[in-house]
Amino acid sequence: MGSNSTKKIDYEKIVSEIKKEMSHLSLRMGRVVQEHKDRYIIQAENDQITGELLGNLRYSATSRLSLPAVGDWVLFQEFDGSSGIIHHVLPRQTILKRKAVGGKDDFQIIAANIDYALIVQAVGRDFSLNRIERYLTICHDSGIVPIVVLNKIDLASEVELSEFKKLIQDRFRGVQTLYTSTHEPGGLDSLQALMESNATYCMLGSSGVGKSSLINALSGSELFGTSEISESVQRGKHTTTHREIVQLPNGSFMIDNPGIREVGIADSKKGLELTFHPIQMLAEDCKFKDCSHQAEVGCAVLAAIESGALDPELYENYMKLNREQERFTTSLHERRKKEKQFGKMIKQTMQEKKKWKR
Ligand SMILES: Nc1nc2c(ncn2[C@@H]2O[C@H](COP(=O)(O)OP(=O)(O)OP(=O)(O)O)[C@@H](O)[C@H]2O)c(=O)[nH]1
Ligand SMILES: [Zn+2]
């Protein structure tokens, strides 16, 4: 799958081992294409199965990460041709997750096994190198290959467009970038040419940049007309209560996901390091191993800013993300500590009560 260097999961081997172990069942493999409250739609070859999670799996789940999500490969026992019980969630190639809000879990999976993310921006006011960088960090954290898509290029003059190109290329060397318009014939050719059949894509981008227009345009090929697929894409657009994977006429899969817009920065240092590689490289030359690159003597990062070798904006952004990450990790830590204290208090109270009864 393109430049994705992560190790490929050998599903065949895993599945045959599980099947051997569970030979009293006749398990089938399928992919979760829709996630509802407690129901999953599973695509298995040409069958759509309504799946429920095996009670055992639900109750033994220690976090939401172990429950099925859109994009997951699962093993299920079919029972009447259209229903099934999910027995296994197979290991994930990639996980796109976000901080859970208000829930007891730390993370919530948005989708699993996404190969490529299209980071969509529009020329004009939405355009922000910093925002692209945030999305790149998310991709690197998740093991998803990013592709930057600058859309609405029909709104830019030749000169403006070449300025945008230069900005992107200077800042994100090595990241594939496409320039598209859904309002011009042929405006999607570069995207169409790039998309791999059977690979799974998602769109990341602010509201209004043209994500739905892109999906609609991609699904409106002459081959399929505007029939089923665009209908299901439309449906996805208006139904904000669940996530869905649709197959496009070009054979690739697209996660049409309203929630994907709320993706935040997750808690991995790895993503930061990959995105801000130049800073990481420089940091190796800092005098102190634990240099915070803020005021230290012999800081190679600060020296590079001074000499003009490092973009100060990239530095600012790096520090900002670092702070955010720290805040997140700290708040997690504090929350856990509070929970522990609370548990202790309950225990003590119970013991006191017992004493009192005696
Ligand atoms: N000029 C121009 N307008 C576009 C293009 N693509 C989309 N638009 C317009 O931009 C507006 C927003 O497009 P959407 O596809 O709804 O954007 P979105 O990213 O899906 O927005 P949300 O659904 O709010 O997340 C619509 O009015 C589109 O017609 C383009 O290539 N050029
Ligand atoms: Zn330093």
TrEMBL record:
Residues 339-358 are annotated as: Disordered. The keyword Zinc applies. It comes from Phaeocystidibacter marisrubri. Belongs to the TRAFAC class YlqF/YawG GTPase family. RsgA subfamily. Pfam families: RsgA_GTPase. Residues 112-261 form the EngC GTPase domain. This is Small ribosomal subunit biogenesis GTPase RsgA. Monomer. Associates with 30S ribosomal subunit, binds 16S rRNA.
